[in-house]
Structures are given as structure tokens and as C-alpha cells.
Amino acid sequence: MPDKQPEISADQLAVDHISSLPMHIHRILWSSIRLPMRAAFHYDPDDPLTVSVCLHPPESPAVTWVISRDLLYEGTQGPTGIGDVRLWPSLTYARSVVYMRLESHGMAALFEVNLPKLEGWLLSTFDLVPPGTELDRTNWDLLVERLLDDA
Description:
single chain; globular; disordered N terminus
């Protein structure tokens, strides 16, 4: 076992800090029934178009959804999404929230997320990979080569 631990740069620490947002959210079961739960939003600059949302329901296995980063941000600004993922900002008990409705196989779940925390974190991911530059680092030749190899 090596005596020396690998060095971690300040840039890497900044990326690790920005790339994850653990928070408490609520699952809305009924207008007056809100189930608190943990969630973690993860952003990987190497997969710059998406955010993984890991939901940790109490006494159940974790569930991960992959959502477009742009869609998630648009949901902090106004209603957006069709199909499996829908988001819209709102005020609840004088708090700014984003409602996130996730649907799969005919079943849906509604979640309430702290809007200022989510929006601030998403803006910090834009510092890592600015909007419109997500595909700048893509090696298109390698991608085409891999696609042709699979054909």
C-alpha cells in the first residue's frame, strides 16, 4: 500500500462541492400530507447535459432519475416539461418551491423542492460548463467510430 495519498487539487474540491446538492425534499401524497425525504442532485461535467436526482424514500430503496439540466433550470423559472418529467415554480406557505412531477409506467409522484437552493446550485453548474458549451469537448470522430463499430 503506498504511503503517499493522491493529491486533490483545489479545482477538484470545488467541482466535488458544486457537483452534488444533498437536501431534504417532500413527497406530496395529498394536499395536506407531505412526506419528508432525502434527495441528492448530482452533476458531472463529463456528462454535461444531465443531472441525476437520487431520491431516498424512508424505508425504501433509493431511486435515481436522470433529468436534463436545462429542463431542471427552466422549471425554476416557469412551468416546463411534458411526459415523464414536469416542473413548475410555486409559493407554498410563503416559501419558494419547485414542484417536480415524475411519472413512469402509469404511476406518478409529486415532489416539493426548495427553489432558491436548487436554482443557486444549478447556476453554479453553469460556471463549470456554461450553457451552449456542453458538447464542445465531444470527440465527434471517436463517437462516429464507435457508432459504426456497433453497426
